[in-house]
Structure formats: structure tokens, C-alpha cells
Write the C-alpha cells for this entry.
Amino acid sequence: MARNEKRRMFILITPVCVANNFIKRGKAEDIEITPLKLQKLIYFLFAEYLRRTDDTLFTERFETWTLGPVVPSVYAEFSSYGKKPIETYASDSRGNSYVVTETGVFKQCIDKIWCQYRDYSGETLSQLTHRPGTAWSKAKEAQKRYLELGDIKNEPEQIA
């Protein structure tokens, strides 16, 4: 490598780490977060980040499930809670929990989504994803397994 060439450092952001960010915020403000609410917060954050940066926050795709967009890894991690509030962070096999460092555009986006939607139930947030013209409604109508990035980026911002 040339002496003046900068090394690029890529940090992998996973949906489960993003989930921990929301759980951390919920604990700090005594706001309950159910698995359904968590899925929708992650979806809205992903969409906001995509609109602002024209880049994806993470590589895992949102699937078209009955209650709206779902990231399977987050579902697998927290499904044991059912409809109850999540009490613990996701952790790796060594018991370590990770969050995404909240700086720059990520911080701006998560702050916006948290302030807009923290007080709504998962059911209400799910209803927002079902509105006509949303990426979920288009995927559902076309019987697609995954939501299209272009549809996520171009859907109108969801405000309850």
C-alpha cells in the first residue's frame, strides 16, 4: 500500500445492533419496546437513512410479513418475547452486546425516528406500514417476498 493511501475501515452494521440502540433508548426513557414495535422502528430508520444517504444502513433485506416489514435476524433474536416488552439486549455467543455508535447521519436519523415514533405502539406503527403506496403494500400486492429498495426510498414519510 502506498504511504499516502488511506486505509478504508468498513464497519458492519447489523440489524440486531440497531435493535440494541432502540432498546437502549427505551430503557433510558422507560419506554416499552415490543418485538413488533422494534421491527417498525428499525424499518423507519432504515428508510430515513436510505432517503438521506442513498445507501443502505445494513445488507439484510426486509421481508413482506403479515404485520409489515420484518428483518428476520431481529425476529429470531426477540421472538421469544411475543407481545411483551423486550427486557434484554441482543448479545453474541460470548455475552457481548453491541450498539451502533450514534454519530453523523446515523445519529440524525435515529434521533428523528425515535422522537417521532417512540410513543406509539407496535400495532399503530404496523398500520402505518400498511398504508397504500408504501413499500410493504406494493410488495404484498405483487406477492413479493422482499420489499424493493426503490419503493422504500420513495415511499412517503410515515407520520402517525
Observations:
- The first strand starts at residue 63 and ends at 65.
- The chain has seven helices and two strands.
